[in-house]
Specification:
- By secondary structure, the protein is α+β, with helices and mostly antiparallel strands.
- The chain contains seven helices and eleven strands.
- It has a single domain, classed as 4-Layer Sandwich (Deoxyribonuclease I, Chain A), CATH 3.60.10.
- The strands form three sheets. A six-stranded mixed β-sheet has the order 4-5-6-7-9-8.
- β5 and β6 form a beta hairpin.
């Protein structure tokens, strides 16, 4: 059942970070921390947005923990690049974490070119503790910053999978912005949407897969190019709301399976 590549978010504790080693993954890349480079171009942010920062809501006090992002892989990770969102490009308690974008190049057996794997976690909505308009503004700027980071560091002819907790949810403003900028990965398709439309979801997973798509948080975008062609083959829910023993998370964990041409 174990996927060859896993992307973790909110892995803040030592126990969470130890998941990769305990699971036997040979290649592990931890995400950015508070000392990592900030994404350029947006550090000034919005004057009014920065001025209204609330210390009591965790804003304007700097990052206290790392990003909580981790990439686990059975295949060699040859190099990585990562950056955090600027200090004034977050809202509420989310500012305590060094949220950003994590990019890794992974060598897949039998392929001359590496596959780019990208991981992120964007600003939450209600749990941020601030007003919805403020939380939304932070997410939309982070969304745009993530896309700019990808455009700067990843050639347009590179195949890639970009997944994470995007926190778009069912908020119309967040959805509209994501659609306006064309998603975080130019030229990509969204795995959950495609799998459901093409009936490529295992029968036992369909209800949870539909629920995850409605929730609009845990998204996986994929882009196949001539340098590394691949296609979506199947999607299954690894842990969700179906089964016994309770839920492992407040998110639905799913695995997309890709076949090489």
């Amino acid at each position: 059942m174990q996927p060859q590549i896993v992307l973790l978010q909110e892995a803040f504790t030592d126990d969470a970070k130890a998941i990769g080693v305990k699971a036997g993954y040979r290649h592990i890349l931890s995400g950015p921390n508070k000392a990592s480079p900030q994404m350029p171009g947006l550090s000034a942010g919005d004057v009014g947005f920065a001025r209204d920062a609330s210390w009591f809501k965790g804003e304007d006090i700097g990052h206290w923990v790392d990003s909580g992002l981790v990439i686990l892989s059975d295949y060699p990770i040859t190099r990585g690049r990562q950056a955090i969102f600027p200090n004034d490009l977050c809202a509420g308690f989310d500012c305590i974490a060094s949220k950003g974008v994590q990019l890794a190049w992974v060598n897949i057996p039998g392929r001359a070119s590496p596959l780019a794997i990208v991981n992120t976690h964007l600003n939450s909505r209600r749990s941020s503790g601030v007003s919805i308009p403020r939380a939304n503004k932070a997410l939309m700027q982070q969304f745009s910053a993530a896309r700019q980071f990808i455009e700067k560091n990843l050639p347009t002819d590179a195949s890639a999978i970009f997944a994470g907790d995007f926190n778009v949810g069912r908020d119309e403003q967040r959805i509209r912005h994501a659609n306006q900028v064309g998603g975080p990965l130019p030229g990509a398709r969204e795995a959950l949407t495609d799998a459901l439309a093409q009936d490529r979801v295992e029968s036992v997973s369909r209800a949870d897969a539909r629920k995850s798509r409605r929730n609009g948080k845990d998204l996986q975008f994929y882009r196949s190019t001539a340098s590394f062609p691949f296609q979506l083959a199947n999607l299954r829910v690894v842990f969700g709301t179906i089964g016994v023993g309770g839920h492992l998370s407040d998110h639905i964990g799913y695995a997309a399976e890709y076949s090489l041409h």
